[in-house]
Amino acid sequence: MRLFTGIQPSGDLHIGNYFGSIRPMIASQNEHEVFAFIANYHAMTTVTDGKRLAELTMQAATDFLALGMDPERSTFWVQSDVKEVLELYWALSSFTPMGLLERAHSYKDKVAKGIAANHSLFSYPVLMAADILLFEAEVVPVGKDQIQHVEIARDIALKFNNEYGDIFKMPEFRVDENVATVPGIDGQKMSKSYGNTINIFGAEKQQLKTIKKIVTEPIPMEEPKEFEGCNVYNIAKLFLDEEKQVALQQRYKSGGEGHGHFKLYLAEVIWEYYRPYREKREYYEAHQDEVRDILAAGAAKAREAAGNVIEKVRSVTGIAY
Ligand code: ADP
Ligand code: TRP
Is the CB of 25 within 6 Å of ligand 2? Predict the structure, then answer.
């Protein structure tokens, strides 16, 4: 089965991204054919500082390789290195009713947040459909906010196929209900836009400072504490096996320690958990040329995979003459 995913290079990765999407994707490389790319064309809808976008793209590549993206087993590339996607985007545009895009929640939400209502933001789902259809994605694992975009891709594919025959494979979205929503330091869903994140690769001092800000109930040190519903515990348990979870629960129940102690413990647990990934990241950071080589090889693999569909599209639309 071909799993397909796009990652916007939009800043520092946090532990919500890690447990919600990166870790499941990395794990699925063992069983499935994974296609993952850095969606830098999509990021142009919000990042207009060119130098920054270039940096963010390399940062995303470095982070994903460090976290276990395996370029041997999977296909990992930067969206703009396979320009066929822009060609398909245009071909699909004639099969995209305006009303379909006008109903897109993500577009309406972004405009409501003050992002300029321009054409690239509006046609964002058509480019995403081009990604998905060009690479014959079978399953697209998504968060709830992206379901509609996969449905739009299906609608467009159907219209195109109705006109030209069976060109596109129908993609399915998959929402993993088992994946927990990771709480932020204020207890709301962790998200860049809420400013409540704990980053994966933050500096040690900064991490500790952030973790100390986790909101907790004010209870005297000596008293027993509830672990259920405690933000510190709820984050810690993601990193702990059963035995260590029970041990931490016991510390809450027995009293004698304050939330400050649990926060120090959490900081240590997170720091240790990411140690091997941090070391790998430092390696890639010092060898950016190697990262570029990996991306170039990934793009070649991706272009090859895209060849079949784009040739058919050129032929049936009459663009190949
Ligand atoms: P953010 O909300 O910080 O902008 P993104 O929207 O870029 O994060 O999310 C990228 C991926 O990480 C998505 O697949 C999303 O479902 C997942 N993700 C983000 N935040 C969380 C969270 N708090 N818990 C679980 N998964 C999350
Ligand atoms: N829109 C996705 C997001 O913001 C990123 C993305 C672009 C994508 N193209 C894709 C995801 C194709 C899955 C498939 O998270």
Answer: no
Does the beta carbon of 5 lie inside 6 Å of ligand 2?
yes
Class of domain 2-182+288-317: alpha beta
Identify the residue whose C-alpha is closest to ligand 1 atom 26. Answer: 20
Run of H or E residues at 163? helix 147-164
Catalytic residue among 192, 212, 237, 280: 192
10 Cβ below 6 A of ligand 2? no
Q: Which long-range contacts (CB under 8 A, 24 or more apart) does 289-292 make?
A: 291/58, 291/61, 291/62, 291/65
Q: What percent of the chain has pLDDT over 70?
A: 100
Q: Which residues pair with 109 in a beta bridge?
A: none
The residue whose CA is least distant from atom 5 of ligand 2 is: 6
The predicted structure's pLDDT at residue 121: 95
**Cα separation of 274 and 150, whole Å?**
32
Task: Say if CB 244 and CB 277 are below 8 A apart.
Answer: no
User: Residue 274 has what pLDDT?
Assistant: 98
Answer yes or no: is the C-beta of 193 below 6 A from any ligand 1 atom: yes
Express each pLDDT in 218-237 by its tens digit: 999 999 999 999 999 999 99
**Hey, where are the domains in the chain?**
2-182+288-317, 202-273
How far is residue 215's CA from residue 162's CA, in Å, rounded to a whole number? Answer: 55
CATH of 202-273, one of 3.40.30.10, 1.20.1050.10, 1.10.240.10, 2.20.25.10: 1.10.240.10
Q: 41-90 pLDDT, tens per residue? A: 999 999 999 999 999 999 999 999 999 999 999 999 999 999 999 999 99
Element (H, E) at 173: strand 172-174
Question: Catalytic annotation on 192?
Answer: yes
**Which ligand is the nearest neighbour of the Cα of 6?**
2
pTM: 0.94
Active site residue 205: no
In this chain, the answer to whether the domains covering 2-182+288-317 and 202-273 adopt an identical fold is no
301 is annotated as an active-site residue: no
Instruction: Tell whether ligand 2 has an atom less than 6 A from the beta carbon of residue 39.
Output: yes
Q: Which of 189, 280, 301, 312 is catalytic?
A: 189
Q: What is the pLDDT of residues 118-168, one digit of tens each?
A: 999 999 999 999 999 999 999 999 888 899 999 999 999 999 999 999 999
